[in-house]
Amino acid sequence: MTFIRHSTDCPNIKIGVRKIKYALNSYADLAFLIPEGWNTEDPPPPKFLVFFDDIQDAINAAWYLCKCLPVECSNKIKWFNSDMTSTYKEMELDNLISSETWGLCTTDLFGMVRLDVIQHKCS
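^ that's the sequence the OP posted. Answer follows.
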């Protein structure tokens, strides 16, 4: 894994880059986000954002990652894009900050939606 370090006001934000091993449409390269064998008695995985150029790819990736979780936790990973209502976007941003949501598969829209709140909340 290669890490790119960029100065931010939030030292807990990290950008990770991994070499692609599998077909892009399999989303299998994202499996590392949910530790193998993870179960509901384990601490939640670290929060994450995965960015895509295409809304359908973000949706498909979220579905893939949900299948990596026990059924009762499959609502912890969601997609986030410009097709969502403003109310949904605000609610999901709050859910990500509060750890109700663990991960979002999103487009570059996420960077434009109240990023200041995330920067304010990081520690």
